[in-house]
Amino acid sequence: MFNVSRGYGADHPSYLTKNNYSIEERHKFNDNLSLHAEEATDTKHDSYWTSLKWQQGAFRSGIHFRDIDKNYTTVAGIPAYQGEIGADWTTETDFQNVQESSQLEVYRDRINGNPNAPNRLDYDGNGQVRVKLMEGLYDEFGFTFVNTAGDISPQKSLGLNDRISRDIGIWGGLKATVFGGFGYQNSQSPGSSFGNYNRENMIAGIQVPLTRDVSVYSNYEYDWLNQSSEGGSSNPSIVNAGISYHKQINNKIYFNTQVDFRDELGVNESNSSFLAGEKSIMLTGGLSYNPTQFVSIYADAQASKVVFGTTNNTPYDDFSVHVGVRITFGGATYWDPLGTVYGIVFKDRNGDGIFGSGDEGIPDVKVKVGDKEAVTDKQGRYSIKIRGKGATVTTMPDTVPGGLMASTPQVLNVTIIQGRRSRADFGFGVHTGIYGIVFVSKNGSQFPSDGDKFIGKVKVILDGKITQKTDPQGAFYFRQVSPGDHMLVIDMNSLPINMMPVIKLKNKINVAEGTNYSFNIPVKISKGEAAQEE
Q: Which residue from 530, 316, 346, 529 is spatially nearest to 424, judged by alpha carbons?
């Protein structure tokens, strides 16, 4: 298959290519083994992808190779893994009482390579195991490890976590869920003592459906953090709580609303707790009207108020409204066709609304398809046959674990085509972010203090894709950040000409799920300029 894409328009970034061409090959050797390969060019630089997948019964595995030129771009943006040559191996196993998924990756980064060790490779991996101990009782274990010796900012880290959850039958056939668990993380960054720490945490929580329409949740996390060279020891904690209401008023109107409260305790300027000391309340709501099977008119709104327990962070209010119409155009359908609606309900790690690498399915969520119901399996998947020209698909919020917020529309209209499958996915994100201040550090501290000058309009880039400018108080905030490792880059060209960062320009950050990572950027004024100011 030959693919062509072109980008144009006055706002099309000059650093992106205007044309992309690729040749794509898909081949199925047998029922178990398949190949997908692609060679692409932006007319100046070439890149290659190859994926070999194997599936037999409950076991799935794949090995993926990539060689992406460090200058290769697409018409839409910077490609994932730009400048990397490497391979990764993935596995998935789905037995009756045990599910497993894992990934192991080996690569070389030709953009951010280590000049002192140009031939060193980078390694990272992660895995999850979910075990059904007995009916309604589950144990979930996960791990991550990183060793980027070949990176310009070498880092080693290991993370472990385990969580046990229990479903408890309550009134009216409803089920409450209680859970508890622990986590451990060790990080070593040879180039920056700020990245050296040990962190243990314990978490416990409960989610209770009061009725089929109303659900409440609450959870508490307590941390033991030791960052000896920068902030010593600290014990931050997090309280989350919320209530949600979802109502199908009739066959055409759906309404949902949710209130979430978050309080980050034990945070102060004298230590690095990876939290911003945030106290926030957020209200979300949505209304959907479906006059026909193929038309949906919707309105969603979100309002939040955020204050901080530390003096170096600026409180803010946020409000957004989304109004629109979704129209599904009919095709060659039969009268009252019989088809299948399927999809996945997943934890949306990066908040993009698309199920992808690193996302994980959410089990035991009820999905309403027309007048029928399906329940997601251990991998978050569901499938149900239905007759009709179309169907409205939505999740039942009392079956979604507490603390999660929708990252996709929660009411979808699908067209039913005779003998075919129609897909409807639902994503839920967690409250995770990276926050910090760019400031002139007069005493060399990593933390702002009285008299420090805050620097606005400084560009901070996350993972080479998302750019933010600091506000007049020097603050930046990346929302809906996926848990795991991220690269935060300071754009030197956006700093005043007389200023230099005290820390590295490129910093690898590991973000834990459900937390706000506080990463300040101190800068200094050149000696000549400092003398003039004095």
A: 346
| Residue 273 scores a pLDDT above 60 | no
Tell me how far apart the alpha carbons of residues 247 and 189 are, in angstroms, rounded to a whole number.
Answer: 50
Last residue of a domain, one of 82, 112, 137: 82
More confident residue, 424 or 302: 424
Domain presence at residue 282: no
pLDDT tens-place string over residues 295-345:
778 788 888 888 876 656 678 788 888 787 766 554 333 345 678 899 999
pLDDT in tens, 102-144: 889 999 988 878 888 888 899 998 888 989 899 889 898 989 8
CA distance 476 to 484: 19
**What is the distance between the alpha carbons of residues 415 and 326, in angstroms, rounded to a whole number?**
13
Residues 6+ apart with CB under 8 A from 320: 301, 302
Q: Is there a domain that residue 6 lies in?
A: yes
Split into its structural domains, the chain has a count of 2
Q: What is the mean pLDDT of the chain?
A: 81
What's 154's DSSP letter?
A: -
3-state SS, residue 171 = helix
Residue 255, both tokens: 């309404």
pLDDT at 529: 47
Residue that finishes a domain, picked among 82, 99, 117 = 82
CATH of the domain at 520: 2.60.40.10
Length of the chain: 534
301-314 per-position pLDDT tens digit: 888 888 876 656 67
Integer Cα distance of 463 and 78 in angstroms: 10
- The reply to whether 376 falls in a domain is no
Model confidence pLDDT, tens digit, residues 440-482: 877 666 666 666 788 888 999 998 878 888 887 788 888 777 7
Query: Exposure string (b/e) for 3-27, b if CB count within 10 Å is 16 or more?
Result: eeeebeeeeeeeeebeebebeeeee
pLDDT of residue 225: 84
34 belongs to a structural domain: yes
pTM of the model: 0.62
Q: How many Cα atoms occupy the beta-carbon half-sphere of 364 within 13 Å?
A: 15
- 18 is in which domain, residue-wise? 1-82
The Cα 49–Cα 65 span in angstroms is 6
Neighbouring C-beta atoms of residue 389, cutoff 10 Å: 17
